[in-house]
Q: What sequence folds into this?
């Protein structure tokens, strides 16, 4: 009987342990809600997101790009029409990105979006960017011109409309799905320090973050401190279980 208790506690402890171990190796996720003809989106991707993501620090976080922004979607039957903040060409550009994100792998789609956002006119960058990156053009073209592009854009729209709080600026940036005003504001001018602060809050200090001035630890109970709040009780529980098993073993 005693061993049954000990064994089940060990099983429980190792489950808890693997859950918290997973949590530790998981990388933060940066979600960027943007639109193709928006100057601030272009600047953020060009000057902040891209240089950091393609530096050694880039392997410590994931990026999720959601091209839609301050648009609206109207569905009639199976088809969609979109109304974009900077006009129809912006919708075309957003579709182009949505299709590239769907049809290229993660690093290539990131390169593609960057290539388009630094081009003269992002909505027309298909030829230029597929050539530059040496990737297949036809598949993306077919997607943009057909119903697939619309369906993908509609899905980006649903994600954007579901945001809480609602997006009031583009690009809109969340960390692990959570919007934090201070992190968002600072991201626009110093994304690196924000990602280093997010990593630090998760107990990670990559070499590339050394000497970087971090954001003051978020004390507000709201958005910012959620991940450490989740992690600590779990670690405490694990400790308790291990100690308990250890003591039981001695009885
Ligand atoms: C992504 O796609 C490109 C081009 O098709 C290829 O060269 C590269 O190895 C792929 N990367 C990964 C991580 O699969």
A:
């Amino acid at each position: 009987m005693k061993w049954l208790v000990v064994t089940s506690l060990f099983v429980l402890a190792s489950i808890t342990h693997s859950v918290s171990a997973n949590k530790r190796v998981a990388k933060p996720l940066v979600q960027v809600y943007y639109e193709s003809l928006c100057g601030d989106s272009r600047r953020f991707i060009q000057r902040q997101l891209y240089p950091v993501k393609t530096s050694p620090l880039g392997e410590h976080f994931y990026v999720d790009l959601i091209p839609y922004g301050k648009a609206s979607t109207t569905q009639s039957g199976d088809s969609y029409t979109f109304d974009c903040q900077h006009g129809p060409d912006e919708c075309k550009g957003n579709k182009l990105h949505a299709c590239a994100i769907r049809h290229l792998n993660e690093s290539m789609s990131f390169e593609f979006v960057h290539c388009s956002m630094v081009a003269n006119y992002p909505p027309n960058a298909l030829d230029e960017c597929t050539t530059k990156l040496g990737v297949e053009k036809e598949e993306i073209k077919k997607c943009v011109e057909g119903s697939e592009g619309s369906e993908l854009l509609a899905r980006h729209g649903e994600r954007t409309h579901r945001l809480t709080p609602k997006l009031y600026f583009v690009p809109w940036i969340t960390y692990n799905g959570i919007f934090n005003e201070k992190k968002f504001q600072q991201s626009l001018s110093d994304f690196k320090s924000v990602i280093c602060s997010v990593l630090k809050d998760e107990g990670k200090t990559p070499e590339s973050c050394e000497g970087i001035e971090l954001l003051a630890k978020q004390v507000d109970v709201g958005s910012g401190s959620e991940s450490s709040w989740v992690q600590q009780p779990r670690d405490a529980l694990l400790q308790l279980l291990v100690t308990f098993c250890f003591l039981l073993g001695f009885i």
